[in-house]
Design goal:
By secondary structure, this protein is mainly α. It is 79% helix and 0% strand. It has one domain (25-89). The chain has helices at 2-23, 34-56, 64-89. The longest helix is centred in the last third of the chain and has 26 residues, at 64-89.
Length: 90
């Protein structure tokens, strides 16, 4: 029974992690922070271009494109945090 619970817990954690990274970056910073918003737009565009490169190369890019997408997703989240901090200071 313990092994079953551990397996279910591991499945939930892995599924959540995959869904988080599968979403990709979004532009969710408003015009109030124009530079951060523009940076998010560039990140989103880069992510989409990587998606296209993966499709064009049938996913055969040695995992590097996937890693770049992970890093772009992280950068997107950091920009959102930066905007949140800026909002708290106003």
């Amino acid at each position: 029974m313990k092994n079953l619970l551990k397996g279910v817990a591991l499945f939930v954690v892995l599924t959540t992690a995959l869904l988080t990274f599968a979403q990709g970056p979004v532009v969710d910073i408003g015009r109030r922070h124009g530079n951060l918003q523009a940076a998010q737009e560039y990140i989103t565009a880069a992510y989409q271009r990587i998606d296209q490169a993966q499709a064009d190369n049938h996913g055969q890019l040695g995992g590097h494109a996937a890693r770049a997408k992970e890093l772009l997703t992280e950068a997107d989240a950091e920009l959102r945090l930066a905007a949140d901090v800026a909002n708290q200071r106003r």
